[in-house]
Amino acid sequence: MISAIVLIHADVHRIPETAQAVADISGVAEVYSCAGDVDLIAKIKVRDHAEIADVVTGRINRLPGVTHTATHIAFRSYSSSEVEGGFSIGEE
């Protein structure tokens, strides 16, 4: 699986509707409404890079209310247990 994070700028008057429309797209695992320099953050999980293009440029960018996106493809994911385990290697 390939993971990507999509930072979404949206029309402020349509954020809830836009967030739900993004969440309803196949390949979108989660959508967060947030404060800061972006309005929404979507977590994408798909089988290959071509699907990322389809989800982002073919679907998300075409939604009413989406004004701009920036996509970041993940190389590796870490969980808190993996990070903690890495720091404790060799300790007794």
TrEMBL record:
GO BP field: response to amino acid
The entry lists its GO molecular-function terms as: sequence-specific DNA binding
InterPro entries named among the record's database cross-references: Dimeric_a/b-barrel (IPR011008), Tscrpt_reg_AsnC/Lrp_C (IPR019887)
Q: Which residues form the Transcription regulator AsnC/Lrp ligand binding domain?
A: 6-76
- Annotated Gene Ontology cellular component terms: cytosol
Organism superkingdom? Bacteria
| Signal sequence region | none
A Pfam family matched by this chain, by name? AsnC_trans_reg
Q: Give the protein name, as stated in the record.
A: Lrp/AsnC family transcriptional regulator
Species name for this entry?
Gordonia oryzae
